[in-house]
Design a protein that fits this description.
This is Outer membrane protein assembly factor BamE. By secondary structure, the chain is α+β, with helices and mostly antiparallel strands. It is built from three helices and five strands, in the order αβααββββ.
Length: 114
């Protein structure tokens, strides 16, 4: 009976140590950022003479294009520091006949990557 209990005990100890390592407070968590980093300076350079290609050259490729309304493109950016709260910003570019018309923006006060 002792031979069977030793492997079971080793398995229980290994499982306990593995689970404890997952929640250890000293574990380093990386900052995660995704999307297009756009700031107020970039938005200030937009003007009605710009084509869609000009906007893409300035801001990069949009994350999503509205399937139902192709005159709208969305630029999203998210930042999560050290596994904490996810902060988001969103910029929507609106076109008319392939030319930049206007934008709507909800920017972060400070973009951590800059």
């Amino acid at each position: 009976m002792q031979k069977a209990s030793i492997p079971a005990c080793l398995a229980a100890v290994t499982l306990t140590l593995s689970l404890a390592a997952c929640s250890f407070p000293g574990v380093y968590r990386i900052d995660v950022q995704q999307g297009n980093i756009i700031d107020q300076e970039d938005l200030g350079e937009l003007n009605p003479t710009m084509t869609r290609a000009d906007v893409h050259e300035l801001l990069g490729t949009p994350i999503t294009v509205n399937s139902f309304n192709p005159s709208r493109e969305h630029y999203l950016y998210t930042f999560q520091e050290d596994g904490g709260e996810i902060r988001k910003q969103r910029v929507t570019i609106i076109y008319e006949d392939g030319q930049y018309l206007r934008h709507e923006a909800s920017l972060l006060e400070e973009t951590p990557a800059n």
